[in-house]
Amino acid sequence: MPHGAAGGSPKLFLSDYGLMAHLQGLGETALKTGLGLPGDLVEVFVFAELAKHQSWAEQRTTLMHWRTSTGVEVDFVLENRRNELIGIEVKAAATLTSKDFNGFRHLRETSPKQFKRGILFYTVNSCAVR
Question: Fewest C-beta atoms under 10 Å: which of 6, 33, 43, 114?
């Protein structure tokens, strides 16, 4: 996957998360409950879904990984033809802290006119809607 404007190496993914789970020794129970899954497996799942979405989406986007030279990163950034950016961060945790939003803050500071929003995807076993 291409790297964002901050530069650096491309991020590589094994796109078959079933194979990846098998290689990590995760059994059927762990996969069904989804609790305690390794972060890289959850990230690969989200990557695969975003890649599928790109194949049929009406609005074309570029999918990339963004990281600064100091290591602040956003797992996925979608950029459309108008150069608008949407950051997507993946956390394999049931709770969030303000630290989990640091990548979005840095992306917004570096590209204030292009940054439109950040989406944080995290694992939780219940959700309240307000």
Answer: 33
Query: What is residue 84's predicted lDDT score, i.e. its pLDDT?
Result: 96
Instruction: Report domain 17-122's class.
Output: alpha beta
The answer to whether the beta carbons of residues 45 and 17 sit under 8 Å apart is yes
- Choice among 37-41, 63-67, 83-87, 112-116 with the minimum mean pLDDT: 37-41
Do you know the residue count of the chain?
A: 130
Domain range summary for the chain, segments of one domain joined by +: 17-122
51/45 Cα distance (integer angstroms): 10
* pLDDT tens digits along 5-60: 555 556 766 667 677 777 777 777 666 665 556 667 788 888 888 988 888 888 89
Which of 38, 48, 39 lies closest to 100, judged by CA? 39
